Amino acid sequence: xxxxxxxxxxxxxxxxxxxxxxxxxxxxxxxxxxxxxxxxxxxxxxxxxxxxxxxxxxxxxxxxxxxxxxxxxxxxxxxxxxxxxxxxxxxxxxxxxxxxxxxxxxxxxxxxxxxxxxxxxxxxxxxxxxxxxxxxxxxxxxxxxxxxxxxxxxxxxxxxxxxxxxxxxxxxxxxxxxxxxxxxxxxxxxxxxxxxxxxxxxxxxxxxxxxxxxxxxxxxxxxxxxxxxxxxxxxxxxxxxxxxxxxxxxxxxxxxxxxxxxxxxxxxxxxxxxxxxxxxxxxxxxxxxxxxxxxxxxxxxxxxxxxxxxxxxxxxxxxxxxxxxxxxxxxxxxxxxxxxxxxxxxxxxxxxxxxxxxxxxxxxxxxxxxxxxxxxxxxxxxxxxxxxxxxxxxxxxxxxxxxxxxxxxxxxxxxxxxxx
Length: 420
Ligand SMILES: Cc1ncc(COP(=O)(O)O)c(C=O)c1O
Fold this sequence. Notes:
Blueprint: H1 10-14, H2 19-22, H3 24-27, E1 49-53, E2 65-69, H4 70-77, H5 86-100, E3 109-112, H6 114-126, E4 132-137, H7 141-148, E5 153-160, E6 163-164, H8 166-179, E7 186-189, H9 203-216, E8 220-223, H10 240-243, E9 248-253, E10 265-268, H11 271-284, H12 290-333, E11 348-352, H13 359-370, E12 375-376, E13 389-393, H14 399-419
Parallel strand pairs: 4-5, 4-7, 7-8, 8-9
Antiparallel strand pairs: 1-2, 3-10, 5-6, 9-10, 11-13, 12-13
Pyridoxal-5'-phosphate binds next to helix 6.
């Protein structure tokens, strides 16, 4: 962090705690008659009982039932603490310990409406106009959209087969320091099953990034929704949070491991950062849906950490089949000059075409007629690059359609190569 700049954006510095929300701890004091709360009376709530039937981990019928009723349903129906439902916060501390080996204090965790909300809040807290952010090139457009709400200055660091090129980042930071120039406000990266590039940050690069964060007092924003979609198994790589807990704001998401419609994710990190995020959330949406949180809590009660991991393994098996089908079909159909990495996690394959190819033109001119759609790479670039690349996702298509899709994509490429 640059010592000449305050840590927070001008908006974050202006923010004060909600006076009403700050009174909440007094509510639970023995004998307190609260005339202060503006909550609706629970007698007016519509729901008596909520029952959700789970699938078996393999997708079959006859899974456990989740039942919300009585005090738990009242809690799910009422306003709640901004940080999240206390029991769920405890559960998630245990989940983080279980999957990442990271120990968190109570004040280091905040429930979110998906990790996307965390990207936006982090940007709002840390970025003023003209501030710079380090991003991967290419990167997730949802993050670029969030960051662009506050600044349009990006320092794009290339990705290779091992993830973000930390040597390039190291040179950039060194140059900045030598010249006495401001350092970037944070480094954003997607360490596993990168969207869109499909790569996973290697263990040496993770250590290198943690080391740079320490050397330059930088904040790392670790956005990790594909962590558990680890298609090739093996030992889980350490999270950046595990390697540099005091310098990492980490985002986890249930979108890819339970379902995105729940809109549940959570942020973890240094307590003062999480506290600043809480103040933002007080101002923007009070708290994440208590209903969604109560369902997740009931889910953990029914299946536990190991049950969730088991369920994810079934999803992983599905994605692995699809990935293998796409990789095999790409080898079969695409011209040899098309480059791609085999992803070991996540949902995406990134195809790099020869320089001079225009992916936007390809999709515009031929997608409709050929009946195949990929996302042109430009959508993923902070600096107008990646014009000769495209992202394919194997998450929603079965192997026979993947095969036909790659055959059509090969024809799209041949047409573009012929246009010269
Ligand atoms: C890298 C990355 N970050 C964040 C998100 C947003 O996920 P969520 O549903 O948790 O908001 C996505 C969604 O695709 C993503 O790919």
